[in-house]
Amino acid sequence: MQQSSTHQLEARLNAHRKLFIALAAFLAENSEGRAFLDRLSRETETVVDHEEDPGIVPDDGFALQAGADEEMRSIVKAALSRSQAIAARANTNT
User: Fold this and answer.
1) Residue (of 52, 28, 54) closest to 41 by Cα position
2) Is residue 14 part of a domain?
3) pLDDT mean over 63-72
4) C-alpha–C-alpha distance, residues 31 and 11, integer Å
């Protein structure tokens, strides 16, 4: 039962990621959407410049947020790549 539940969760996460990439690629089709995605890829919620002192060993919260920031950047990068590929294909078909 646990393995099935884990597989279902992984499948759902993959589906969400694919959907986010498709939506972000759609946003990137115009200059305002692309600017938004560029800003989003540079933003981070991870603490920097000693804004908060995590102590000698950072807690799991810092690691989780760093992972979330990396995943967001990965999604935006994939979306921008998809958008460029779609535009290139459209240019070769005209």
Assistant:
1) 28
2) no
3) 87
4) 32
Asked if 76 contacts 23 with a C-beta cutoff of 8 angstroms, the reply is no
Structural domains in the chain (count): 1
3-class SS of residue 5: helix
* 26 Cβ contact partners less than 8 Å away, ≥ 6 residues apart: 33
Q: Could you tell me the two tokens for 80?
A: 């921008």
Is residue 12 in some structural domain? no
- List of residues 6+ apart from 87 with CB closer than 8 A: 29
Domain that holds residue 89: 21-48+56-94
Residue 2 lies in a domain: no
Q: Is the pTM of this model over 0.85?
A: no
